[in-house]
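Exercise 7.
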Amino acid sequence: MDYLVKALLTSESCSDLYDLLSTEDVLTEIIKVCRSTGCRDVIEFFLQKDGEGLVDVVDSYLKLAPLALIISISFGNPYMGRFAHRFSKLYIDHYLTSLSEVEFLEIARSVGLEVEKSDGCFNEVDLYINRNNATVRMCYRFRMPFTSYLKAVQSLSSTEFAWSLLAVPLYKGFALIENREKVERILLEYLRNSIIGKMKSIHTMCSSPGSLYLSYIDRLSYIDQDLANDIKDFVKILNPEPVNGAGQALDFSGAPPNAGDLGNVELSGVLSSTKNLLVFAENLFPPCIQAILRSLVNGENLTHHQRFALATFLLNLNTSVDDLLKIFKYSPDFNERIARYQLEHLAGLRGSKRRYLPYSCSTMKTLNMCNSECGTRNPLQYVYRRFKLKT
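Solution. The predicted structure, written as tokens, is:
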């Protein structure tokens, strides 16, 4: 499967990627796997449904990834984000982890992650003295140039202190890493960001991205017409839900949908379409929440703090858990069972039965999620002020 990663990350244009993924060998392998295990579950896994209950045919999923990649680039956001996240996780968790450390590091470097390993320790530090009065030490076996480390974990370190440069030991210009598991987590983040960045670039380069997968299906039809038609028919019923048909950003101008009395706002009507929600948000939500919502709808993987901020904000505007699930389905790592449990907990339906409030503006600033000074103490206060201006 290394060829797919290399083909994607080295392609300079839409046609480059298409040519690399439409060779006779690749197409024949796709047809072979589709005939033996089926294509539908794989396409759904990469592009739509959550990844819970992944069947034990990981090799087949990876072999059909070129087909899912072409379809996701054609559909645009949020499908590109879903593919990037799910492929990266599958590739690392079920393929790279089975490799020796030498092979693993070779692949990590081949995709651009500058990581080194020592046969001993790059550095050792004292952690604590145990009950036997012995000093427990930490051996750091891996290292990365701190600039490379910052680039790799950029989206994590912005809101999670554990990944920030302040929380990582530095030695002679390198960020020190203690074990392979942490390197794998960094590689997952780096690979996912690299893949989604390249996919977006290629999507923009395609003169007609929406027809890219149709051309690919036509190539498959030369080998198996019936199977190609079956794939085409199935893709039609996937219920495409990109931000718009071309996968580009929406026009956020226009009046907000009628919200009625803000004290009794029901967002279910607003949630009838993504565009309605984003227009509503543009007019009434604070800039920080707008930014998180846009990122989610574009298929980006939100951090824990971003999810908490968005969920608690909307819950305190009387949004139901079921309606919130409609929004969080855009998340590339969406798992309905886990998401429902977490949202019900935040809504006060589980555990302490206490509904959580959103972060204050001061906390949003501390977590680097405040992107505009709006003169309020809490994101909810912004909504009430805006609503009074609109009515």
